[in-house]
Amino acid sequence: MSNYLVVTSEFKFSGPNNVINSLFNGCECDYLHITALRKKYSDNYIESLNISKENVHFQKSNYSLFYLVSLIRRLRPIVINTHGIRADLLIFILSFFFSFKQISTIHNLPDQDYILRYGNWIGNLILKIHSVLFRSQRVKKIAVSKYSKDNLINNLCAKNVDYIYNGVDSDKYNPLNIVKGHLFPNNNRKKVLFCGHLTDIKDPLTFVKSAYINTNIDYILLGSGPLLNCVKEYNYENVYIMGRVNNVVDYLHQVDLFVMPSKTEGMPMAFIEAMLMNLPIVCSDIPIFKELSSIDNISVSLFKQGDENDLSEKIKTRLDMNNVSNRDIALKYFTARIMAKRYLDFFNE
Fold first, then answer.
1. 42 CB-contact burial (10 Å; exposed 0-12 / middle 13-18 / buried 19+)
2. Tens digit of each residue's pLDDT (9 = 90 or more) over 135-156
3. What percent of the chain stands above pLDDT 90?
4. What burial class does residue 36 get, using C-beta atoms within 10 Å of its C-beta: 0-12 exposed, 13-18 middle, 19+ buried?
5. In this structure, what is the dihedral angle of CA atoms 248, 283, 307, 233, given to the nearest 10 degrees?
């Protein structure tokens, strides 16, 4: 059986690596291998991949390029699926010397994400370097949404692009499999949840500011990051900052609504996780959420990005609605098995 190799930056829980986790758990192939380009790794993440230890390859050399040459010679993969700019570019270089097909998964909107993360000068430099791969016909690009695909083609002149929606383990994120406890006080009050890295891109400040308007609703924040102290300055009684947690699914099970106020997104896993827990969702009116909100019968409301007054109003309105069917929709479009099958179709072309 021919080998497939997945290359990522580091073995740790992160947005892109959660997609890889779904890929491995969704297809259960004994010929799918994975490696990372940093020596540091998380045992818990590796265990979560649910694959044979022989299929996990650790970099021991200080030089990733030499390590990859050795690994490719040993495995002789016919397809290498890369995640992240470092993996993309190193494998792209090696594709001129070895016979394999490169498939790059683009998890973000590079022209937006790089500028917001790194500033104009560094962000544009990174974008220019990465665009060499985007414009290459010989590399297959997998975007994570239709809008992401169109953005790559129209704004970055990308070639050979398709898209696959991200998927999540539908058994893990299942309300029927969770024992409901008591994580919060005031259990008779409605509760809304933000879950993500506390950075400007995720915009937790708009979420917290709206708590001042909806004083009869509890606001729960999961996560940490550079804006943690700024968030804490809004010392409202109905805001609960829980920090980084490893049982997000338990919190999803005990709230009434999920909020994503992001300034830019590719295809957020947290959105799918909330859907699988059958939560209604309120999110910013950025393109990816406009795309998803067009799905028939989905319980999603959009607010004007950065406007806490509009957010607070949309939260109240959505909480009053019934007949949420988001789990059924997620089972149709956004499971790990559905995503993995599409990836394997591309691998086998």
1. middle
2. 999 999 999 999 999 999 999 9
3. 85
4. buried
5. 0
